[in-house]
Amino acid sequence: MSEFEGVEDTLFIPLTARITVSKNFPEYFFDQKALEMEDLIKDKKIDENSTQYSIIANVARSYNLDRMTEEFIDKHGKCNIVNLGVGLETSYYRIDGKNALFFEVDLPEVIELREKYFEPGLNEKFIKGDLFKLDWCNELDTTLPTLLIVAGVFQYFHEKDVPEFIENIKDIFENAELIFDAANRFGNIYCNFYVKRTGNKSARMYFYIDDVEKFAQKVNCQLIECRGFYNDALRMLDKKVGLYSRAAMRIADNRKNTMILHLKI
Fold first, then answer.
1. What residues form DSSP beta bridges with 146?
2. Are strands 101-106 and 80-84 parallel, antiparallel or unpaired?
């Protein structure tokens, strides 16, 4: 049995996806650091229980978050990049960090696992903490432009939790933006089915967004962008992936089954 249970065990799903796509479609996405961690997933059988579409979905999220992070760094120069619920994400190694300061936040047992595989970079810091308790804010200069990244995390919390989190961080940061992935009601049903299919039956997803504009108004934030996952994936991979995968990607983007929200806090 894994030492990680429930929600924590899901951190191996995106790692598996990054490894698989790096091997099969490096022209779209390549993650050398993830490949170096392959022994972590050898006994989990996530890949064989995943469709090609679900594997690409996990990587498309990382691909787009990388691009959005790079845009933020290019715009602001010295800034904070804060990965909340970072898991085994290796974006630090994929992004040209320039003058940015990277903060990787997660529960103590997850950070301890990260530390087994890599040390923090020169401009990177690992922080043990609960993203909702906000103690991690004491570890960075909150007056700097700050990009908060929450990938594959909010879904596991309830509807009231996410607006409360956004409201609480408004009083802490002077100039902050938040990017996070979300699904609509239908996408949430599919994601729950997929996680169970990978062998994890105790990590249920609750939070979803059906009306993006209404959600932005509810949390009193400016909606900078609502981005689909697959525009570049469809263009770059085209017929290199199966017909079902291409159709599923187009439907997901058109119906906003999966999306990335970018808010000005």
1. 80, 176
2. parallel
For the entire predicted model, the pTM comes to 0.90
| pLDDT tens digits, one per residue of 24-57 | 999 999 999 999 999 888 766 777 778 999 999 9
Which amino acid, one-letter code, is at 96? D
Q: Averaged over 172-194, what is the pLDDT?
A: 84
| pLDDT score for 8 | 44
Q: Where are the domains of the chain?
A: 6-264
Contacts 24+ apart (CB under 8 A), 114-119: 114/86, 114/88, 117/36, 117/37, 117/40, 117/88, 118/33, 118/90
- Looking at the chain, list the stretches that DSSP marks H as alpha helix, in order from N- to C-terminal side: 12-24, 32-35, 52-76, 91-94, 108-117, 161-170, 185-197, 212-218, 231-237, 243-255
Query: For residue 97, what pLDDT band results from cuts at 50, 70 and 90?
Result: confident
CATH placement of domain 6-264: 3.40.50.150
Owner of token pair 């994936």: 233
- 8 A C-beta contact, residue 56 and residue 84: no
